[in-house]
Specification:
The complex is a heterodimer of chains A (205) and B (338).
Chain A (H helix, E strand, L loop, with lengths): L2 H11 L5 H9 L4 H15 L11 H10 L12 H7 L9 H13 E6 L3 H5 L6 E8 L7 E8 L8 H36 L4 H5 L1
Antiparallel strand pairs in A: 1-2, 2-3
Chain B lengths: L6 H20 L7 H4 L7 H20 L1 E10 L2 E11 L5 E7 L6 E5 L2 E5 L6 E4 L22 E11 L2 E10 L6 E7 L5 E7 L5 E13 L4 H7 L21 E2 L7 E9 L6 E8 L4 E7 L8 E3 L4 E6 L4 E6 L3 H9 L1 E2 L1
Antiparallel strand pairs in B: 1-2, 1-11, 2-3, 3-4, 4-5, 5-6, 7-8, 8-9, 9-10, 10-11, 12-19, 13-14, 14-15, 15-18, 16-17, 17-18
Classes of the chains: A mainly alpha (205), B alpha+beta (338).
């Protein structure tokens, strides 16, 4: 077996090769044993090797390959997912604040992870700061992990959970107000556009 | 050193000198940027004229070109990928679609001034808006005049971005109290190819870069198909009619910020009631919450691309949220008086 073929075999085991290569390799009987060793080694690396696995599986693999149709990468329309949305009949009337609030819930906070153990939180760090990370998620799907610092005075040992909630509350609302302000801006511009044509009249009188 | 002919230019130069040495190493695109960044001494009037012209060219491209692009957005460790289509029909209708390729498949659809949002976890809705609420600032869809009071557009050198000859334009704030932006524009079309948001220290807070771009004579068939589909209903602004309750004075804001929205409302999750003010400098926006709820009086500080700071006054607290340096947020929060 050439070095090139070994590479292919390795890539195949790692799931990177196309079916044609796979078929060619598997059909070559002299490769079978090596194929299986690669397969086994890869399975061990992945942690899913089963003890007592039947040694020669290449025949089964070849049969499987022969059975499955040749898959051409499907050209998926940019709109496939959107079309599913648009084909739904009857939109739910968004309940004013509800819908935007819901969007913002998606928009902003998906998960919060505490970096410090709870014991360290209840005993503030020397500088009186505790650090957590908050993951925010704007509508596009971007998750933005950022650390936040909370400044404690020794007398108030606020529950970090409460602070996190407070922080999320402001961040979510900020996103919501930003989005709503775009709509308000359009309304303002339209109102101005309606007023403008009438202005010359009083001037001319 | 070249002669600086008026006060406005002097401010630009100060901002430039202050912000640039750290930026120089970071916001270049490979080595192509070196020529422009090796010795930034001053900004000429010609550079400003060119910068403004390039910005407006980009704005025209974003509004008028038919394009099919993919875009990567990097914030810290996170990388997100989008597909982005835009077109203008023969009747003049603007069509735009942005959808995420990682994570939940969300779609943002714009037809002229109506934007619809689709996400697996929400009930779809539409809003009136002149731009998508996505990675590209809505100011980029408007003329330079909108941001002119707060930012100078300065034409820098060039480079190669997305295998195209590109022009580098920086939006330099007229003071050190906000972020600057580094734009790389396609020389042929004016199209935005790359955008970096840069802190006053020179840290890149966010990077948006196109990974493919196809400009076509015709509007994409997908967009035309979308154009004729019914969209979800328009949402009603729940806060637009609620007046603020107290007569707060905002005694300091960075130059160029003006109020675009104010109301009284309760926050999601916590229900904290606050008088609310939104200020804009044309490009970035900052929220100011003034509340007498004791729960809002916790001193929180959160620093990232979007930062938050709470300042406790004697009998009320002020929380400021926005894409501004922490020092600016602190100063805004402290400067609210009754």
């Amino acid at each position: 077996m050439t070095e090139h073929q070994n590479e292919k075999l390795s890539a195949l085991v790692d799931g990177e090769q196309d079916q044609e290569t796979m078929q060619a390799l598997v059909e070559n009987a002299s490769h079978r044993e090596r194929w299986f060793r690669y397969q086994l080694a890869s399975a061990v690396v992945r942690g899913d090797a089963i003890a007592g696995h039947r040694f020669d599986i290449s025949a089964a693999v070849a049969a499987e390959v022969a059975k499955s149709p040749v898959l051409a990468p499907a050209k998926v329309s940019a709109l496939a997912g959107l079309q599913r949305w648009l084909q739904r009949s009857g939109w739910m009337r968004p309940a004013a604040s509800m819908a935007v609030a819901a969007s913002v819930a998606v928009v902003t906070v998906i998960s919060v992870q505490q970096l410090q153990a709870p014991t360290e939180v209840t005993n503030p760090a020397p500088q009186g700061r505790s650090v957590s990370t908050l993951e925010t998620m704007p509508i596009g799907g971007v998750v933005n992990p950022v650390s936040f610092n909370t400044v404690h005075t020794p007398s108030e040992q606020m529950d970090v959970g409460v602070e996190r909630r407070l922080l999320q509350s402001f961040m979510m609302d900020h996103q919501q107000q930003l989005q709503l302000s775009q709509q308000q801006e359009v309304a303002t511009l339209e109102a101005e556009a309606e007023v403008t044509p009438e202005q010359p009249e009083p001037d001319s009188q | 050193m070249m002669r600086v002919s008026n006060a406005m230019l002097a401010i630009v130069v100060l901002a430039w000198l202050g912000a640039s040495p750290a930026n120089a190493a970071r916001d270049g695109v490979g080595q192509q940027a070196e020529t422009t960044q090796s010795a930034p001494q001053t900004v000429t009037e010609q550079q400003i004229r060119d910068g403004v012209a390039w910005f407006n060219r980009m704005q025209q491209a974003l509004r008028n070109e038919n394009f099919n692009a993919s875009m990567v957005q990097v914030q810290g460790q996170r990388v997100e990928l989008f597909s982005w289509l835009h077109g203008r029909t023969e009747e003049g209708t603007e069509l735009e679609l942005l959808y995420s390729l990682n994570g939940p498949d969300s779609y943002l659809v714009r037809q002229n001034q109506q934007v619809s949002y689709f996400h697996p976890m929400i009930s779809p809705y539409s809003m009136q808006s002149r731009a998508l609420f996505g990675p590209i600032p809505s100011a980029f869809y408007e003329s330079y005049a909108e941001i002119e009071p707060s930012y100078s557009a300065v034409a820098m050198g060039g480079g190669r971005v997305l295998d195209r000859p590109a022009k580098h334009v920086r939006l330099i704030p007229r003071d050190q109290q906000r972020f600057s932006y580094s734009l790389w524009l396609d020389r042929a079309s004016g199209m935005l190819l790359r955008l970096a948001t840069v802190s006053p220290n020179g840290d890149i807070l966010e990077l948006v870069q196109l990974t493919s771009l196809e400009i076509t004579p015709e509007v994409a068939a997908d967009l035309m198909q979308m154009h004729n589909s019914p969209m979800p209903p328009l949402i009603k602004d729940p806060n637009v009619d609620t007046r603020i309750e107290h007569d707060w004075q905002q005694t300091w804001l960075p130059e160029g910020f003006h109020q675009v929205r104010s109301n009284h409302h309760s926050l999601p999750m916590t229900g904290i009631a606050a008088d609310y003010f939104l200020y804009s400098d044309g490009l970035t926006r900052v929220s100011v919450y003034v509340s007498q709820d004791p729960r809002a009086a916790t001193s929180i500080q959160y620093e990232g691309l979007e930062s938050l700071y709470t300042h406790r006054h004697r009998d009320f607290s002020v929380t400021v949220v926005g894409r501004l340096p922490m020092e600016t947020l602190q100063r805004i929060a402290a400067s609210v008086t009754r």
